[in-house]
Structure formats: structure tokens, C-alpha cells
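Task: fold both queries, return C-alpha cells.
Query 1:
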Amino acid sequence: MSKKKKERKKDKKKEKKRDKRQKHSKSSEGYIMETIRNVADLRVVMHRNERPIYFISATNFNLIGIDEWVRNFKFVSYIDCFDGRHPNVFVPSEIPHAEFESIEDINNYLLQHKEVIDYITKRGGRAVATFLMFDESTEEICKELGIEVWFPKAKLRQRCDNKMETVRIGNKAGVPSVPNTLAPARTYEELLSSAKKAGIGNDLVVQTAFGDSGHTTFFIASEEDYNRHAAEISAEDEVKIMKRIKCRGATMEACTTGSGTLVGPLLTEVVGQPALTPYKGGWCGNEIFPGAFSEKIRAKARDMAYRFGNQLREEGYRGYFDLDFLIDVEDNEVYLGELNPRICGASSMTNHAAFAYADAPLFLFHLMEFSGIDYKIDVEELNNRWARKEFIDSWSQVVIKSTEDLVDIVTHAPSSGIYRMASDGSVSYDRFDYHRQAIESEQEAFFLRITGPGDYRYEGADLGILITRGRVMDDEFELNERASNWIKGIKRLYASKPLTEIQREDAPEAGSFKIL
């Protein structure tokens, strides 16, 4: 080989070495890292992110606090929970619109609002949108606006969200549901016939394909029970018919990535508490604390979530999801309950758990998955570390709904912020803050107001979310005295007036859709 060829070869080797050293470079979008190899890399990328990322929803509740981990992350909300005092929440002025029937309707309204379009345009950059819920219309509006949606397609999410499909995906992954059969139940006789063939008895739980917080879950032990819900059940081509078990609810969020499925902590579920919700079986909060479950149950749930997430990847889904589990109190068997192919109400807990502060919130791995940046992370190492008890601290949240069977208009509502409980159990406003970490003890709580002055208050309306240190349930999984005092105290801070005849015509019906 000639001397010149040797020199050229040596120069090329030097260039390759220099390229490897220069992993970080500037582009039109700011700081870029070629490959994310660990949590430190991920945190640096998010800390120096220059691409505008938005969470567009009714409120910022589900991803509260993520703006402090991700630069240029903003919330576009319909409800002004903070009275204009949150620096990263943008709420446009109210304009005439058709009556909302879903969260998707709210998001589509926001995306077509001139003030929102102007706000996103003024901030510049290639905008990214994240949502709690969205549909194909949302995707089309985003496409027209040049906004990229960082979630799997709505059509895929809809398919996976179907409770029947969840059972089938779980079966493929070896993740069992409560003994069940999937069949039509157009009459009570047909329901019993299907249950008999499946060997699951006649004390049953029936679920339709979609719905949440107990709205489409029916407990059927007699023909009278069936007839009460016949219109909803008989209208479906297929329903999930389950053996009724005595169980505790639990939930676990995870994120399926190209390196495998990352699994968060197992949370208890506050379900069907009459002080919080009018819906039997309806979700109304969560707890996280080290002794909530035995290590055997926690390990089984983690394994189930890991396998389910890997199967979701095979189905074409990627990113953040949530699994509800049912734990049989008789034998501690763990069953798959439901899939939420998205962020959900538990996300505000998962992304503030101790592991998130030690490493990174789970949602940052979702953003990584859609960022277009190459990554190779050690999922096994992270899952093993997050499973340790020291990565679980003690927090609770409850969603306070209006439980009375009436409709009125709110004249006064408690502001979002930090509240304090006195020794007699009374509750009062202490100071403004939008950080839950500002809560100093179990005598304080953060309240995020949803229903405010001028809003209708109706049965099932979300009044707000209360977040506190420590537990809100006792060992029998009933609300403890402290939680009861908090709920009563917050509700007492609401005042209302009756409707006029004109207002009554526009008032929402009881059981209107939830926004969380």
C-alpha cells in the first residue's frame, strides 16, 4: 500500500473517531443526541428539547408536572383550573360550540379555536400534540395544522381499547382474565346459556366494548338485574360475560418500547365509594404505598404487564398504556381487568412516584419512543430497580364527583392550591401552588379544581381531584376518617343556586361523560 493511501486510511479512521466523540450536534431543532443509551441521556435530551410539545385536553391533570421535566412542554386546556396562574397552561376564551359529548369533542374544538392556532403558530417550530383521548377527526385537524401526533393511530387505539379485544390480546400474551366468555346476550336466557357453556355460574358481571368508571359494567344476578340494563346489553353484538368474584382493584402503567416494556408501580384503586362517585364499580382514585400488595402479587402483576406490553408491540401499538387488574381476595389470584391504551387517571400518580424522581417519569420514555432519536436502554435493569420498595413512596389521590341526584349552578368553588386540615377535621384554603410536592404533611393536600363558578353541577360531574400524602383507605379498602374529612371539607366549600327554566333546558343530563 502506498504512503498516500495509508495516510488517507488513517485520516478516515480519525474522522470516524471524531464523529463518535461528537455525538451531540446542533440542528434547526436544537440539541440532538444520536443515541439514548441510559436515563441520563434521556434526561439531557428532554431538558434541552426545543421542539414545542403540547398536551391538549380538558385539563392538565393527567400529565401534571411533566412540563418541569420537558423543556417547551405546554398544556392547552379547556378548563382554567388555575385561574390563569399556571405559567405553562394556555386556556382560550370560550366561543360558541356544539354540546360536547366526549373528550375528543373538546380536543377538536380546541384545535380549531383561533386563539389556540395563533398560540401554537406564534411559538413556532414543528409542533407535537399529545392527548388523553383523540379520534380520526383529531388526526385530520392536526395534519392540516402541521402538528404531529405522538401516539399510535386512533384506529389502532380504538381496536385495542375494545374490552373483547383486550381479552384476546391477553390470551395471546398468556395474561388471563377472570373466567369469562365473549358472546351476545340479547336476552337473559341467552346470557345464562352462554354462561353455562363457559362454566362460570349465574352470578355474573357483564361489560360492553367501551366505557369507563363503571358506566358500562353491569352486575347481573337475576332477570330483574338484566332487565334494568337490557337496553345497553342487548344492543351489543358481543359482550364480555365474567364470573363474579370478590376482588380488589389495582392498576399499573407501562410503556412498550423498542427495547422492551417498562413497568411502573402497582397502585391500589379507589372504586365505587358513595362519597366520591354515584357509579357502582366506578374508578375514583388511587393509592401508592410500599405495603399495598405482597411481593408475590406485585411480581405477578409486573410480569403480566411486561408480557402484555410486548404483545401490544406485536399488535402494532407502542408507547404508554395502563392495565387494570382484579385480585381475587379468596386466593390472591391476579387477573387482567381492562386495558387503557393511553395515559389515564393514574398517570398523575405514576409520573410522580419515587422512581420517577430517581430516574425519569414513565411518560418521558413514551416521548423518547416517538422522538425519532435512536435509543437502546436496559429495560430489565430499570424494571428490577423500580420494583424495589425504596422506589415506592406513599401518596393518594381521589376524584371528587357530585353524588347528589340534582342539577344546579355553582356560585362559589374552592380554588386550586394547597389546603390544610385542622385538628377538628375542618378544611380551609392555605396557599396557592400547582406542585403536589409542596404538600408538607398528611394535614395538607393539593386540590385541583375542575368544576368552577358558573358551571353546572350534576350527578357524576367532576368537582376536582384531591392529592395527599399517605393513605385514603383503611386495610378493608374503605375510605378512612381522614379521607372522609377531606371529601366533606372540600364539598362544603362549594355553593350553588337553583336553575331557571331557561338554564334548565341547556343543563347537562346526569351521568354526562367524564373528562379525566
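Query 1 returned. Query 2:
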Amino acid sequence: MSTRVLIVDDRPTNLRIYAQFVTLMGEKYSAVTYADPVEALAWMQDNKADLMVVDYRMPQMNGAEFIRKVRMMPGANEIPAIVITAHQDRECRLAALDAGATDFLQSPVSHVEFCSRAMSLLTKRKKSATLRQRASEIERKHAAVGSTSSSDGHSGKSMLEQIIDTIPIMINATDRSGKCLFTNAYQSALFDKDPDEMVGTDFADNFEPTLAANTRRRDALVLKSSLAIPHYEEKITSDGVDLVFHCNKSPLLNHDGETIGVLTTAVDITARKFAEEHRTHLALHDMLTGLPNRVLLAENVKAAIDNCKKTNSEAALLLLDLDRFKIINDTRGHHSGDALLREVAERISKIIGPSDFAARIGGDEFAIIFSEVKNIDSINSRCANLLKAISEPYAISGIGQVISASIGVSLIPGDGDEYEEVLRMADLAMYDAKANGRNCHRFFSEEMNQIAQADAALENELRDAFRENQFALEYQPIVDAQSLEYVGLEALIRWDHPTRGRLLPIQFIRVADESGLMDVLGNWVIGEVCREIKSYADRGIDLPRVAINVSPRQFQNQNLCDELLSNIESNGIEPSKITIEITEELLIDNNEEVRAALQRIRSHGVGISIDDFGTGYSSLQYLRDLPANCLKIDRTFISRIEHSAADRAIIGTIAHLAHALDMRVVAEGVENDAQLELLRVSGCDEIQGFKIARPQRAENLDKLFDGRKDDPATFAAEG
């Protein structure tokens, strides 16, 4: 008779694939498939399955509900059930376990894993069924012998003995020397013997040596103390199948209350133990990669700290973060990103040592413990090997992919002897690796700690600054390169610090960006620029267009379009009065959402300028595809233009290219007449810098724009 595997999945493609997997298991296995779980339940009423494979997410009922209904059917409680889930379905797996699921497969399922799991569960079920069948045969045999003996006038088995034989619990009694006095049918079936065969033999001889020694040791404790041993678990291997039993040993007493032996009972808890292990695994491991999670990381770091203290040794904690992983998710989808993370986890697991530890602690971040550290050179070498392994090309869905990583290292116990402390220090070192060009590793230093503490203090002061309205704007004029007439302004934020005076952005923008305060700060700048344009208009002064710097984080973490357009509308100003300046970093990380947002802004008449052009990852494709109408050449090129023919050629080329794409070219950081003349010749349209004017306070703009005929050079001198 064939072994039947019931497959329930609402997707016909999956049904065909899983059915093919069953045929790969051998000729004696057959698949019964249903796309409708209700129909599958109806089939189960009149038929028998040896294994169930059930998808969790189905429209009629989920996998947990299906298994729960099956478990209520007579004789169906022991059928193993595999539930197929997605990697993130932690709660679904818990629900399935509660309903009676036995094992899980993660979609998409490979045929190797499918066949392996299915065969393992079927083997365990067959073993349990064989034990029950053998026990029943022994019971029937002894019942027949008892009936014959009674008719001949001999005493058969007592009623109590017959009852004990029928319960699915292993029971045995041994005397003080370990000889078997009694076993029930279920116990003897485990060893494929009749109870009568076992009576008088050394019971422990039925076990392998280690288990036999444990049995004799526990029996001796009971005989010596005349007290029961608390419940314990024992794994017994029978015909290559591991079974787990919940055991108890109690003193066997005679009529005088004397201990004459040991009574042992054992309940098969293999299925329950399997479910418990699943629950534990879910709680302590990452669902996507199978690596340990933060909980296990904390336990292992604390253990490493304790071991280093005891043995006067060293260990190292590494935090590894993939570089620019977000681009992969944005451009190729989260499915490809997940596949890449699994590959990275496999490479990390293969390259670390047997005594090391690796965990995924969230997103694209991994943690590694080097438990045996000889010296700094060994850590350097091992980090280099990790980075090399990770940077090898990947084949994700048949397409090549390359990625790098940044690693931060803290030493145990040299950098700290508390889990949170060494984790924080490794995190600081990892961000230092990011800041130093990525694809490298950095060790924690006390200087990083001091910087981090200073940043934390500055972040608190920034939050106070918002509440106390300590921010202000200055505006740097932009002029036409030929006529030197004012054609624009760039809004520059300043912080009027209560003790340090007026601070420039370079002194606080990085902390604002990293702490998430840039969104609030950016909103304030947009609102303030729009209000001041309107305020001057109400006084009859028409300010030229104003450029507002927008950081990549600000652009991606908030709805910039709505904020900008809402402020323009509420202040009743022309959209052409505003230009947003974006950097090439945003272009690198661009996705469809960013591109759509830029298109929307441009369609309303707002200008878009690419700031610091030429210093990042410049791409002609970005210039072609994005709706920018202005390029701003970075000041590093301007500063060298007098002495570098190469820089003059680069500026000329950028200007020519921009004009071909119908863009204006702005040169910033212009400081003298020689630079101004060379930039005019190179084709730059607009000029900005101290040669023209220094940044002006908002209240001084009327001096510039009430007298538009004045020479801008005079304002440069006054500034």
C-alpha cells in the first residue's frame, strides 16, 4: 500500500511542484492534492493520509485552521503536518504550532528540503505506529494466554496487569540488582521483545552504554534514598529514530514499606518536544537567514565577557553592515534583497571559526564574535577575509550583484566588560568605517567615544533650539556672470547658540541628519523662506528665486513635495521663486518614488539644482533622466581654476554639457577677479561667492533689492 501525502495549497502551480517532489521520494509514495481546504477536509472524513503538507495563507481558511479541524477527526491526531510559510511569518508559525503543526518549510521550497523533511517525519510516524502495533499484538497474545490458563484452572494476568498493558506509556519494574520484574506491552515493544522474555534479565542491558550507565545511576539513587527522582527527559534511539520520553523513577515497595526495587514510567513526548524546539528556535533565531538573533547575541557576548575574565583572554565583537543595501531593495525588490541577505549569512557562517558566533540583528546588519583572539593582526586578517568573501559577486535570480560591507570592532574586555557597552562601541567603529569610505573595518577608539558623547549633547541642544526658536536664515546672493545683476539667493541656516554664538551648518548639520532632526529642520527652512519671500513682497520688494538645500535623508523620510507645495500655496508666492538643491548622493540612491517626486515638484514650476556637481558619483544618465534645470559646480574645482588647465577643461565641459541639456550652470565659491573672468570664459551662467557677496541676514536683504543698480562688489566688501 502506498504512503499518501495530502497537499493543500490554493495555487495550482505549487500543487504541481509539490506533487512532483513526492514522486521523487520513490514509487511507494503518492500525492493527493487539493486547492480548496474545505474539499480536503471532506476527503479526510473517508480517507487516510500519512503526511499533510499545507500552505498557511489560503483564502478559505489558513493552514492553522485546517490542521486544527483535522486534529479533531478520529485517528488523525498523529498525522504529521508540514506548514509552508514565508520567512517573515513568525506569528503564523506560532499559530500553526498551537493548532498541531509538526514542521515548517519556507517558501520557495527546494525539492531537497521537501523530500528530507517529509521522509524524516514519515519515518518517525512509522516507528510510532510500529510500536503501537507491536504493543497491541503483545496485548492480544497475552489476553489469549490468560484466557487459556483460566480455563485450565491456572491464574492468568490480573485485571490491573491487563489495564497497564493497554495504556500507551512505558512501564517497567526492576529489583535491587537491576533485574526486570515486570514490563508492560508498550515498553517491551520498544525493544521488540515479549514481556516474558525480559523478566529476569538485566534491564539496563537493553540500552546503549551511556544510557545504560545513566539508568543504573538513577536506580541506585532511588534505592539509596527510597525517594522518587524528579521528572527528567531521556532520548532513546530505536532503529535509527530518536524518540524523547518524559520519565519518572519511584521506589517499588513491599507490604512492609521496604524498598525492593525501582518502578519506571516513561511517556513519549517526541512530538511535543519537536514543537517546543520550534518555538524556542522562533524566539531565538532570525526567520530569514536562520542565524541567531539579538537575544542569543546578548547571551553569547555576556558569556564571552565572563570567559575572558576567567581565562585572562581576549575576544572581539564585530558589527557588520552592508554598504548601500537600500539601493538593491529599491531597484530590484525586497525578494532579491532577502535572497542576498541569505547568501551573505551563508558566507559569514562558512568563513568564521567553529568557536565563533554569528547573528543577524536586523535589516542588513550582522554581529560576529571572535572568541579566540591572538592579537590585533589576527583580527585584521580575519576581517579582511570576511570583507573579501562578502564582496565576491552574487547571482540573485540569475543576475549578477556585487555588494560590500563596513565592519566595526570592539575588543573584549579591553573596550568594555558590559554587553551594551561593547555593542555601542562596535557600532561607533562601524559608522567610522562607513565614514572612511566603506568596504573596510575600523577598531573602536576613545576618540570615537568622545565624539559620540559630544554628538549626544549637541543633539539635546538642537532639540532645545527648536523649542526656543534659536534658528535663523542668511542668504548668499547669486549674480549673472556677465551683467553681475542679482538673479538668485541661497538660503543658509544658522543657529544662534545661547553660549557659542552664531553657528554655521558644518557645526551641527551632521548631527541633525543622523539624529532624524533634519526633517523638522528642513520643514522650518522651507516655511521660513516662503514666509520671508511673502513678507518682502508685501513691502513691495521682489526677491529673486531662493535656493533651498535638501538633504537625501530629508527627501526620503518625509513627504517633501506636499510640504513644499503647501507652503508655496499658503504664502501665495510663485513656485518659480523656489529652487531645491539636491546632491549627487540622492541621485545614487534614487528610485522611482524619488524620481516621481522630483517630476512633480518640477511640473509645478519649482526649480531643481544639482549641488556640488563633480565631486560625487556623477552620471550622465542621472542628468538625462532627472528634471533638473541647474548644475552647481563644486567650489573645489573653482579654487584650482587659476592654476589647473585640467580643472578649467572640466568646468568648460560641464558647462557645455549642461547647456546641451538646457540647464543653467552656477559656480560657487568664487573669491577673486581672476576666477570670475575664467568662469565667464568657461561658459558659467551664474556666480556665487565672497567675490560677489557674503551671506546676508534676512533683515538686510532690502539693502540689496531696493537698489538693484548698485555694484554687487560693494556688498562683497561690506559683508
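Both queries returned. Flag for query 2: The longest strand covers residues 241-253.
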